[in-house]
Structures are given as structure tokens and as C-alpha cells.
Fold:
Amino acid sequence: MIEELIKYDIDFFLFLNNLGSEPWDNLWRVITNKLTFIPLYGFLLYLVYKNYGFKGTLIVVVGAVLIITTCDQLANLFKSGFQRLRPWVNEDLDGLMRIVVEKRGIHSFFSGHAVNSMGLAVYIGLLLRHNYYYLPFILLLWAFTVGYSRIYVGVHYPLDVLTGFFFGSIIGWGYYKLQLIAQKNL
Structure:
């Protein structure tokens, strides 16, 4: 059963990865770059400050840092434990896939980009949803776009990304709940 699931995952990866075309490659390289979204983070920081003040913003920033740390460490733990090779390492996929970025790292399960973006999207989206109705949906769209970018550029399989989304959602929600407890005790 696991072998069959992995086969479907590889087939779906090849389908999604090969939807890409050279004219779009630079856009997806930008989207998959971690530094691209610094302006978004700055804007979200402004919205948090506007709604929570200085003290509340510090707590949210600490929460965001803890989310990134938790997500990164969990992704690294899974990568070390499962040791699933990235698509570009899989010799069976030579000539069948597109690789659009520099080859780095060999383990793929699960995507650190997907877990981090989803964790932050859920956390910040839940914190600000009462003041900005559409923001959670925009942040989820951003997280899904970042996750898809990892498939497009050829470094993760769909299950890597979906698993990252799953854990990111749980981690983001958990830190949101901790944030509520912290707010009550201030």
C-alpha cells in the first residue's frame, strides 16, 4: 500500500511539475525564495501592531519565531527519520522532470517551506481574522502558492507539501491557542 501511495505521489509530482514552462520559471523562483515575502511580513507586523499595540506585538513576534523554530526542527527531524530522497536525486526521474532551482539538500519529506508558510498563515490569520475578514483566506492562498512552488521548481513531491501543510496548520493553531492564554494573563 505504501509503495502504491508513493507511486501515485511521484506520478502526481511529474504531472504538476511538467505543467511548468520556461517563461514562468523566474516567477516561481521568486515565489519559492524565502526572502521574497519580507514586505508581506512587514505589513503583517504593522497590522499586528495596529491591533495589539507594542506589548501584544512582542508576544506575537515571539510566537512567530517559535512557530518557525518548531516547524523547521520538526521538518528536519522528519527528513532525518524518513530520508526520502528529493525528486532530483531519484534517478528514475532523470529526463522526466523539470528542475528550476539549484540542487541543495537530498531529503525531501516533508517540506519546510510548506510547514512554515502554513504555520504562519494559520497563526496570523486567526489572530487578525476579527479585524480583517479576508486576511486568513489571503494568507492561506499565499501558503498554498509557496507549497506549490516547491513542486514546480522540482524539489518536493505533493505528499511532502501536503504533510507540511498538515503539521503547519496544527502548529499555527496550537500557538494561536497559546497566544490567547498569554493575552488573558497580561
Remarks:
- The domain at 58-186 is CATH 1.20.144.10 (Vanadium-containing Chloroperoxidase; domain 1).
